[in-house]
Amino acid sequence: MTAPTEYTFRPWQEGDDLALLQVWGDPSTPQAHLDRTMLRANSDKPWARTLVAEDQGVPVAAATVFESSLHPDRLWLYVEVARDHRGRGLATELVRRLREEQAPSGVTALKTRYTVEGADADASSGFAASIGQERIMRSRAVVVEPGVLKLPQFEEDGLTLEEAATGSVELTQVVAAFYNAVHDWDRSEMTLGRAQTMLLNDATGAKGAVVLRDRPQSAGGRILSFAISYEPDRVDAPADVLMGWDPELDPAHAKESVFGLLAMLAHQYPVKIEVDDAMEPLSEIVDGLIAAGHATVVTTTHIVATD
């Protein structure tokens, strides 16, 4: 379908976010709210291109593509069209024009995401398919109810739960290694510096961290698994936690260590965790909790891509 000729296209400019908010309305999901922040002015470092479509001088749609230094094999894509302008090929035309731009890296594959529970999920799924995107990952936000997991047995010279400084080099090394290990489906280049900036820095909302060790740190104990807590969206919301493990552990040992740490975290209060299907030890635990009615899926996000 070809977009009507009355639409005009131009680069993003200051004030477009407010102008588009007037015609788009509030985002349908928290994920959509976050994704709107991808829209930005054109730049070369990092490389990004954004187009706005206008109808008689009024912005009604926008799309952006940009390079990611963390995930270098695909360009992030975000497209949104005002409801009363959908079904006219406008989103397709925006993507076609953006595909004519050449990223310095030569990367052309596009990656995007949408929330399955959102009001626009069917439209997003259909549009992704129409531009050749297929699902490459499912990610879930899950709330685990308190007191449903058996607590691990701690010993003075054995398994130990400890607080960890978010600036700790040891913790940062494990976090970076874990992130890279569970993103073979979308190759990542997480470094110690990026782990600090993107996952552990105060600016990310990180409030603290705990680790499960095979024995006390003073005895040379190794970090088996970790949990980083973040400021929740609401004061009364469950703690928002990123969980992971030492990727050198075998799957059974990784699952055991994550289970023990999650049991401690959710001993008295509910916790919310993010889990991708690629995080197999944690995903298996979560699947069991959901089946038993001890955990609830808050949102499910599909990440789709062209290759």
Overview of the molecule:
The structure is a single chain. By secondary structure, the protein is of the alpha+beta class. It is built from 8 helices and 13 strands. It has helices at residues 16-24, 30-35, 90-99, 121-130, 169-181, 192-200, 251-265, 280-291; strands at 7-11, 43-44, 47-55, 58-66, 75-81, 110-115, 134-144, 160-164, 206-213, 223-230, 239-245, 271-276, 295-305. Helix 3 (90-99) links the parallel strand 5 and strand 6. The model has no long low-confidence stretch (mean pLDDT 94).
How is the secondary structure organized here?
Elements lengths: L6 E5 L4 H9 L5 H6 L7 E2 L2 E9 L2 E9 L8 E7 L8 H10 L10 E6 L5 H10 L3 E11 L15 E5 L4 H13 L10 H9 L5 E8 L9 E8 L8 E7 L5 H15 L5 E6 L3 H12 L3 E11 L2
Parallel strand pairs: 5-6, 11-12
Antiparallel strand pairs: 1-3, 2-3, 3-4, 4-5, 6-13, 7-12, 7-13, 8-9, 9-10, 10-11
Assembly category: single chain
The average pLDDT value, as a whole number, equals: 94
- Major sheet characteristics: 13 strands, mixed
Count up the helices: 8
Order of helices and strands: EHHEEEEHEHEEHHEEEHEHE
**Fraction of residues in helix:** 25-40%
Strand-residue proportion: 25-35%
Features:
single chain; 307 residues; alpha+beta; 13-stranded mixed sheet
Structure summarized in a few sentences:
The chain is an alpha+beta fold. The protein is built from eight helices and 13 strands.
